[in-house]
Amino acid sequence: MADNQKNSGSTTAVKNNNNDGTNQLTEDLGTVVHATDPAAYVRSLPAPIRRRLKALKRLQSDMSSVEAKFFEELHQLECKYETLYNPFYVKRFKIVSAEVEPDDNECQWPSEDEGDSLEDDFKKKASIDKSPDSECEEMEEEIDMKGIPEFWLRIFKNVEILADLIEENDEPILKHLVDIRVRLLNYGAPGFVLEFVFEPNEYFTNTLLTKEYTMNLGPDPEDVLSYEGPEIVKCKGCSIDWKDGRNVTVKRVQKTQRRKGQDTRRTVVKTVRTHSFFNFFSPPQVQEGEVLDDETEDILSADYEIGHFLRDRVVPKAVLYYTGEALDSDESEEYDEEGEEVIIDHTQESGCGGGDTEEGSEQEPSQ
To answer: pTM score, two decimals?
Structure first.
């Protein structure tokens, strides 16, 4: 009995010694946890822990290689399914541009807030003789309206990242935009092309404007651990054949110059670039390995973001951006909780009450 108590006491002492060592290590590490430099924290760790971290980084690098292979195969799969999606995009274009009128069966979709049905419109038209002339003409125009006018312009104005690019002089031109298509590149460097289709107009002779994006599907060999999936690495626009006096990307500025050492002056007219959506088709051209200044880097970063957004969201779900339904989804994805958590009920801490609960009400911020 005495031996058992003695052994038990010895075991307790060993445990206490171990705990003291662990606690000491935790305290030592804890003094550096709050350091502003994470690298300094890692350097302060014991050598065995730093050694194990290297093993974890090696694993992370191997995982990135597998992830890159996944995205390569995903790109091939997207190229395969592109041919299956295209007939839907063609049908959408034909409906928007009034090449076809969908039949009653194709128009079956539940809705509560779209207003009167087509049948009601025809009833209004039948009673047109009872309305004032101006209202009759307006009603006839609505019923006879073909396709969905200004479909893409409305989408651009609904989407903030695109609306920021549009100037007042751009809008009359974008009314002639009848389709946007995505063409995936499955040869050479992977990527995609955005194709903007325009009907004949008085601004330029092109019926097709393109923007090509080149992507890197794998990690940067010099920085494997920063890999977060495919990224756009460069882009290329196209030339726009503007008609005389219709180029909205430039403006003529008149300046008065004074000759040095003389009292004579002259007036000169210069052509300078101005803000326009159509600058989107003439991005900065960067040579491989070139170091970018901050302004060029910001321009290309925004350009790549817009290219991704058009390809992945706007083109596939255009009708939802036209109606605004996709905008609600985007806003909910961007919502983050702010502020500190405030305890409003201490019953859980005092041991009273059941499991964790969450209330749907929100506390009004203090004034």
So the answer is: 0.70
